[in-house]
Amino acid sequence: MTDHTWLERAVALAVANVAAGGGPFGALVVRDGELVSEGINRVTPDLDPTAHAEVVAIRRACAALGDFSLEGCTLYSSCEPCPMCVSASLWSRLDAVVYAADRDDAARGGFDDRAIYDLLGADRATWPMTVAAVPLGERFAPFEAWLGNDARTPY
Ligand SMILES: [Zn+2]
Predict the structure, then answer these.
(1) Would the pTM of this model clear 0.90, i.e. be above it?
(2) Are 47 and 29 in contact (CB under 8 A)?
(3) Would residue 144 show up in a list of annotated catalytic residues for this protein?
């Protein structure tokens, strides 16, 4: 299977998902040329704004492999991952992300991920949502607990 073939499969998943009531996105996780998981966009049926196809595929791959790391795996997505999914890909330590449609195609299709990419580069004072730090005295307590826990699992 080539990148092209895996992407065709991701795109076919995305198209089929529309007919099933979901969003037009599909993704796959592949390791050593073998399919590990599939993901489809489940935002509206699950009432879960984080249920993007890539996140669903990552969650299923981790469950299938019994590991929180997807080192050695590649994510194939029908569309360029949004900032949340790129972050999820980095956190899951995927080796690579390969996509078909880009952010401009997504915008043309009614999904303007580009606006979020732009927002992340802009001053937070211009955001439509407040993001503010409060300098709480106990703010480092969770990290003290973490660093003091010899049984912790680093990730
Ligand atoms: Zn996403």
Answers:
(1) yes
(2) no
(3) no
